[in-house]
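Teaching soon. Invent one.


***
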Amino acid sequence: MKMKCLFIIAGLIMFSWAYASGALAHENGPEAEEIQIAVDPRVELMSIIFRLAGAHSYSQGKLAAYNADVDQYFLIHRDHLAIKIAKKLLDEQGVSFDAVISMAAHVTDAYNLAERVPFDPYPKTFDERWTLKGAREFLAAARGFVRDTDFKRFIESHGSLYRVAEERLSSLVNQNLHFEWFSDYFGVQKGNFRLVPGMLTAGSSYAVQCTGQGGENEIWSVTSISTIDSMGMPEFSPRAIPTIIHEFTHSYSNPIIAENISELSEAGENCYPVVKKQMEAGAYGVWQAMFYEYLVRACVIRYVAAFDGPDAGRRLMLREEGRGFYLISDLCNLLEEYEKARNNISRIENIAPRIIGLFKEWGMNNGEKLKRKKAELQNYWVREGPKVVSIAPPNGSLDVDPSLEAIHVVFDRPMADRSWSVCTIGDKSDLPISGSISYDSTRMRLTIPVNLEPGKEYAFGLNSEVYMAFQCEKGIPMAPVEVRFKTRGKAPEPK
């Protein structure tokens, strides 16, 4: 089934922090972790190359003027060898998303592009979608791209834009992030943190690591722009905080899964088919990724519960269930037990056998527990979730005025702000959304600006099996609703 979705997940969290000398530091002595916040030319270089190669994940940036600058400046270099190699890596090896950022983290700088650590033997922290031959071939071509395009001049010409992004992201983190939570909760320090504004990463954020030759460890979170202001400059919303926590948490939680992955194959093969559509919608195309995401998302829920209260944690847990992590409450309960026993348990690795055992339990009897929970939640959403009270034009209308400028949906209760899934379905015409979707002040009335054509049948979903971002303010998802209508008049002739 054809499906496309516009959705924004909302989650407002307000915390406090201390800022000093360009870095946020957890003051635990001379080896304390710190966080550095800066636009990184390596990230911009890799993002630009893969944007030019056609990678969708780097083609949706919100900074329209910056996008235009990139496209115009590098237009004459679209056939460069580096772009051709990147396209081949994208098409044949799936090098995109966080694999692109992994390369950025594993080179010394954006201009020499030397291997920060030798690629042979292959670094444990380097994304496996790269190969030794492919990585070195790409870097050789990328050095030529840097030289041939005078890439440094492009970076320097956007210094003022980068400074605004850095200052605004630093202000957000300064006011909202409890950075000390990481080493306190997991019982171990992982290294220094680098928080990078991603100027071209659109709605995606990425986490990668690199361990240097001297053993120093860097943990990266590349954070996308939330919105732009009236001057077209980047802004970062407090809603980005859970995402930042999520990306940094991967560095703490992933080793637990990685070190036990061989034990999870049966559970993964039994559970993954039950949630395959939901996982693929989040770019989690293998069962291993499902388990990585389960643990990191449960940890973030416990962070939210600790600093914004149990109700906020529950709302986030309900949202995660709506994303297909149907058994996440089991894992959250286990982590809550861990928190209560911290006097006797020093670090999260000590409960790894229980975490792995829980996953294995889910996979028993061909994933029967997961299937049962999925059905229970879907029934719960139908019974207790928000409902559509009315739609204008009415669902099923056959004579809608094509000059209609907006579709209005009224719900039976206040909805979560800036959170929706408007999906196209079937083979009908895509709903031509012409502006920003928004709620009114009550968050019970949604407006979808449209630009309709005469004589066309339209069909769209408010939520779907895969996308469930329409939720009430308590976090309960709405059961999917299909909307269909036809406009009056004669359809335009095909071009």
Remarks:
- Residues 259-383 form one domain.
- The two ends are 25 Å apart (CA to CA).
